[in-house]
Amino acid sequence: MKNEIAKSFLSLKTAIKKHSPEILTGIGIAGMITTTVMAVRATPKAMIFLEKKKGEEQTKKLAPTEVIKTTWTCYIPAAITGSISVACLIGASSVSARRNAALATAYTLSADALKDYRAKVVETIGEKKEQSVRDAVAKEKIEKNPVTKGDVVITNHGGTLCYDALSGRYFKSDIETIRKAVNNLNCRMRYEMYISLNEFYSELDLAETKLGDILGWNIDDGYIEPSFSSQLSEDGTPCLVVDYLCAPKYDYGKLS
Fold first, then answer.
1. Which of 130, 150, 204, 242 is deepest in the core (most CB within 10 A)?
2. Domain boundary residue, one of 60, 83, 101
3. Do 136 and 69 reside in the same domain of the chain?
4. How far apart are CA 107 and CA 250, in angstroms?
């Protein structure tokens, strides 16, 4: 019995910790609504105090300082609730910021490790065999995510079936259009210092994604360098798989 209670408590604690930003945000929003309701309900009582004070002072209008002195106690509960609500919202933002920072660090370390690993693989087995490995990976990706007619994005650039390894989208384009987009963005990056993934998608007439706002390239890490692999889709249609030798990163807009 004790073990079951301990396990339940631990599960509850883990769940609260995992969803703490959502919980704090919900409490903060509920608290702000409650604050408004409490302030509205306190107003009639405050008006009574003001009228009583005016009678004592024998005046029709009180100075602002007198109004505050006379009514501030009526709004203490609302002020406390409001303060707690603000603290919850700030806490939720702080937790989210820390988690995003940790995620960005982990992603950067993983990307750097992958870059070092690829360089060592090329050094060990040679570029041709390394390309064969990437082709096998590309083939596996389109096998796991087979194309259907409704999934293909039709663009104004080329008629070759393409597959973006990052977003998992099929679209019509061609290798020259993609290379031209890469060249244009790399040229811009010389002056702007960084480019988002969504800017690359826009060059290809693809819709922006949430991931595209978070990830991008910084000139300090290198230019955009696509990797192409020619494969056959499930129905036998030639498909150009687009991946990235220099992967987009978090915090791409940070300048050194």
1. 242
2. 101
3. no
4. 7
Q: Which residue has the higher pLDDT, 181 or 77?
A: 181
| CA–CA distance, 248 with 217 (Å, rounded to integer) | 5
In a domain, 254, yes or no: no
Domain that holds residue 227: 128-244
Mean pLDDT computed over every residue of the chain: 80
Domain count, the chain: 2
Q: Tell me: do 201 and 236 sit in the same domain.
A: yes
145 confidence band (pLDDT: 50, 70, 90): confident
Contacts for 133 with CB less than 8 Å, ≥ 6 apart: 121
Q: Positive or negative, the Cα torsion across 141, 146, 149, 151?
A: negative
Cα dihedral sign, 189-191-196-201: negative
Cβ-proximal residues to 90 (8 Å cutoff; 6+ apart), any chain: none
